[in-house]
Amino acid sequence: ASIVDFKDSTWYVDPCDTLCPNGNNVSCEKLLTWNWDFGDDTRNSKLQNPSHNFTSAGTFDITLTVTSLLGCEETITRTIYIPGPQPDFEFDLDDFNLNDTATICVGDSLLLVNKSKGDITTPKFIMDWGDKTFSQPTNTTGKFGHTYNKAGTYLLFLTQEDEIPGTSSRCQRMFPDTNPDIQNQRRIVVIVKPLPDVKITASKDTICLGDEITFNGTLDPRYTRVKWDMAQLDTINGIVPQDTIVKYIFKQPGTFTVVLRPEYDLLPRCWATDSVDVFVQSVTAAFDIIPDGAPEFCFTNTSTTSPSGNVLTYEWTFEDETPPGPGSSTDTDPCYNWNEHVGIYEVCLIATDVLGCKDTVCQDIENVFQTKLVPYNVFTPNSDAQGLNEEFVIEGESLQEYQIKIFNRWGELVFESTDVKYSWNGKVKNSGNDCPEGTYFYVIKYMFEFDDKSETIEGTVDIIR
């Protein structure tokens, strides 16, 4: 503050000023009232020689009006300069400056323009935003702002400190001036409006891909329309109250944030939002077929979940003839033996996660496995032109063990083999003399694949030449 003393130096002429013979003066005029206007909107002073405390810096017009007993009045104005900082700011939006009042919403940012001036040397600023928050603007010409996160009415004050020219003293001023003597106290106000209530709920927070989910919005009556942001996948626009409940089916798995953005037209548009997260789980059933051990086929499970890491259970069904009828398994990677059931069969896998989400996949397998052992009872190794029936052929399939021995009627071994494709040609050991016509005796010991014991059959075969 700067206290200035003022001294009245008004003079006047008294028309009745007469010196009487007795030595007394006769007077009819004198100064009666003084009115000091200090130019800073504070109350005027009626003292002849007042002192005034200037709480703001700058140039002020000091006006003194003096009246006399005879009704004479005279006014004089002099200019005075009060050194020191002159903090000042205004809203960045002209509409706010009209009434020194900014009306915004919770969460909005307010921008001010620093208009400070005065004796600028090494200025420092402190901005009081009225909500127990302070900042320090860095220059006298820039813009600075603040975000209000709580509804209420707030008064703004900017304090500027700087060095008084020609001295080592620093002076501090505040804008708006809070001097209680100011008749029209300036107030710069920020009114922060609350956001009308918005609440979103979901029928479930975790669903399976393809399932329908319901979202319900509870809104303040001011809202007239809604916008549903389906995790940036879709946007659904509607009106209140019809579209405050929506049903939706997500088309891909993942975690999605659904945002409800209601709107209205009244100013200020303090539009609130609310959101809810939805976890969409998917299961993809898949398997590979390993046919190497047919008629026993094995299956490698390649089922997946998205997002990954979920635990799966499995239900397998294996189409088969009746009996034994369809097979089943709950193993992760099962095997199934169709034995001699030749044909095409369907294998299905149902994969299910802990939430109950499931997927089904089916594939066909072809089983061509069969067992066969057919010995004939006659052959004609006569080397005829047609070359028919020249060998004693054993038709066999799916043999894991095989041995044949053929004897003549005297019990002499004339042929043996462990290869079903190596047939007897009617010669002794297939390379000796021709065996004569007649009846020969064979013994076949064999075991089919996947059997666990050998079998033996005996019979006769005739050579006709």
Summary of the model, kept short:
By secondary structure, this protein is mainly beta. The strands form 13 sheets. Strands 21, 23, 24, 26, 27 and 30 form a 6-stranded mixed sheet that branches. A 5-stranded mixed sheet has the order 37-42-41-39-40, with no helix packed on it. The mean pLDDT is 92.
Description of the structure:
By secondary structure, the chain is an all-beta fold. The protein has five domains: about 1-80, Immunoglobulin-like (Sandwich); about 85-195, Immunoglobulin-like; about 200-285, Immunoglobulins (Immunoglobulin-like, Sandwich); about 285-365, Immunoglobulins (Immunoglobulin-like, Sandwich); about 370-465, Immunoglobulin-like (Sandwich). Helices cover about 0% and strands about 50% of the residues. The protein has one helix and 42 strands. A hairpin with a 4-residue loop joins strand 34 (about 345-355) and strand 35. The N and C termini lie far apart (about 145 Å).
